[in-house]
Structure formats: structure tokens, C-alpha cells
Amino acid sequence: MAPPLRKDAEEHDETGTSATATRGTATKRTGASGTSRRSLLAGVAAFGALGAAGCSRVPTAAAGVEGGDLLDRLRAQGVARLGIAGEIPFGYIDTNGKLTGEAPELAKVIFKRLGVDRVQPVPTEFGSLIPGLNSQQFDVVSAGMYINPERCQQVIFSDPDYQMKDAFIVRKGNPKGLHDYADIVEKKAKFATGTGYAEIGYAVEAGYKESDILIVPDQVAGLNAVEAGRVDVFAGTALTVREVVKKSAKTEATEPFAPLVDGKPHVDGGGFAFRPTETKLRDAFNAELRKLKESGELFRILAPFGFTRDEMTDMTAKELCRG
Fold first, then answer.
1. Going by C-beta distance under 8 Å and a sequence separation of 6 or more, which residues neighbour residue 293?
2. Would you say 235 and 166 are in contact if contact means Cβ atoms under 8 Å apart?
3. Strand 79-84 and strand 118-123: pairing?
4. 20 to 30 A from 151, CA-CA: which of 12, 121, 143, 278?
5. Are 18 and 153 within 8 A, CB to CB?
6. Residue 97: phi, psi to the nearest 5?
């Protein structure tokens, strides 16, 4: 979930999104809790074929339509296509072939309230979510994507529906005493994290040499690397780490912590991404999201996927886009 470089985006609109929107990264993480990566990818592949065969690309917003016309078109066609990355618990196809995860389940509720009856998954690799969104392969990124300045230069975000700290997978008893990135550097621990994860940047900021980081596909591979002794520690989100170690007799999760960015504790937040032209859809989505937060329904939707009340947030996309 390219590491999250900490430069500010230029000329943000009211959400903190750059008007230029010229580049994007794939900085985040993946999540798993009991499903093997192989079975997960099998489901993704099957639904990927369905999505490709059953849905043509939606044209870009009509020229001169301020705020975009995608919401109207989605209401007319009755379905919104969700870009997902096969990440438990954020957005995935379960073993029964059903689309689920915190982001798709939330999307189902919000789009229904917006007059769009159905959602359809379009699985892809995490690093392809932003390019796929901007090339019309789907209508919204529904993958719990972290909101950061680099991404805000290429897409616009809803306000975050959750906030998240980091945690480590370590061997039982945490023999090296690894509790944050500074410990990894000081104790010269062998460190791993996932492809495109924000944790790459946090480790580098703490002084870890990027070329020494073992990059693995996801937290399942990270768990395996720790169990096999190939690395001392794997970094991911607190949620995915605590879920993936549940069935491991050799490892444990450390306590969640906020990594340091520019010397200050930083908490990430994840939300939905939209094409920069589609501010009407983003604003309507945000309005429904606020209602869910105020009523407490948001927590009830996210709790089955391992989220706690500590991971609910009032942060805004504007704050996170500023870094």
C-alpha cells in the first residue's frame, strides 16, 4: 500500500486534491485472515474474467458537466463497478464467490442510498487500482486505500471510513524486542513488508536502507518469512497483522503504534477513490458516509471485519491529503 514520500501536493481543492492530478502511487497493504493467498487469487481470477466480460468501460464525464455526471449514469444503469484488490478484510471475493470486505460492504449501503441498486467487483492488483480507475476500468476504488499526498495528486478521495496504526509480525516472545521502526534500525533486524505498502516509506524514514528491505506479495507471505526465519519482522497494518497471526503457533503481533513522519506520530486513514472530475459523486458519497458515522451504523458495518472503535475516525481527506 512506492513509499509515501512526504512532500505536499500542489494547489489542492477543498478535499486537498491536486488540480494537476498527474501522478499516483500504490502505497498501502493487503489483508488476510485465514484464507490462503492461492485460494483468494483463484476467486479473484474468476471474478476478474466476469468483470471483463460483463461490463464495458464507462465514458469519461461529458465535457462541460461541472462535477461530473457519473452518479446520474450509475443510477440509470443500476450498477457501480468497484475496483478491489483481493485484500482480506478490505475488499475481496470469499470462498463462496461473494464480494465482501469492509469497503465493498460499506459501498453497497452507500450506493443503495444514492439510488444505485447493485455493485459489481472488478478485481485487480493493488498497484493497478489508481491506473485502472483513471482508465475507466471501474467507477470507484473500494479497497480501503490509504489517503496520502501522492495519491491525492491523481484521484480524489472520500473522507476516511477508518484510521489505522502499524504493527509487526515477530516470532513468539518478540526475542529482538522490536516495537517500532527505530528498533528495527537500531537492532539491525531483517525486515520485510508488502509490495507497495506505506510501511516501506516509514522504515526508510527511520533510517532503514530500502535496498535491504525484503518485499513480499502480502502479509501471508510476510508471516511465512518470519516463521521460516528469513526475516525477523514483517510490518503491516495493525488489523491485518493481528488477523494473520491468529492461526500461527510461531509468531505474534506487536502492539499497534503510530510511525513517525517528519518526526511526528502519523496515523493513516483509508477511504474510497474517485476520478478527479467526479466531485458530485464524491460529495454525495461523503454526505451518506457522514450520516453512517453519526448514527453508529458505520461501526456496525466494519466491526465484522475486525475493526475496533479505536479505528473509527473523524479525520478528513483534506487533512490526509496535506500529509
1. 312, 314
2. yes
3. parallel
4. 121
5. yes
6. 80, 15
Q: What share of the chain is helix, strand, coil (3-state, %, to 5)?
A: 40, 20, 40
Q: How far is CA 117 from CA 111, 136, 200, 261, in A?
A: 7, 20, 39, 41
Q: What is the CA radius of gyration of the chain?
A: 19
Q: To which residue does cell 466491526 refer?
A: 303
Helices (H) and strands (E) in the chain, counts: 11, 15
Grid coordinates belonging to 206: 527511520
More confident residue, 226 or 7: 226
Residue 82's pLDDT is 98
Task: Give alpha helix (H) positions in 4-126.
Answer: 37-54, 70-77, 102-113
The angle formed by the CA atoms of residues 30, 86 and 323, to the nearest 5 degrees, is 40
- Integer angstrom CA distances of residue 156 from 104, 130, 177: 18, 10, 39
pTM confidence score: 0.75
Q: Is the pLDDT of residue 34 over 70?
A: no
**Confidence grade of residue 16 (pLDDT, cut at 50, 70, 90):** very low
* Backbone torsions φ then ψ of 170, nearest 5 degrees: -135, 165
At 65-103, the pLDDT tens digits run 789 999 999 999 999 999 999 888 999 999 999 999 999
Q: Where are the alpha helices (DSSP H) in the chain?
A: 37-54, 70-77, 102-113, 129-134, 181-186, 198-206, 219-227, 238-244, 279-295, 297-302, 317-322
> How far lies 272's CA from each of 142, 266, 281, in Å?
5, 20, 11
Backbone angles phi, psi at 265, to 5 degrees: -60, 135
Distance of CA 67 to the CA centre of its chain: 25
Q: Is 140 helix (H, G, I), strand (E, B) or coil?
A: strand
From the number of C-beta atoms within 10 Å of its C-beta (0-12, 13-18, 19+), residue 83 rates as buried
CA 165 to chain centre: 13
The dihedral region occupied by 78, where left means phi > 0, alpha psi between -120 and 50, and beta the remainder, is left
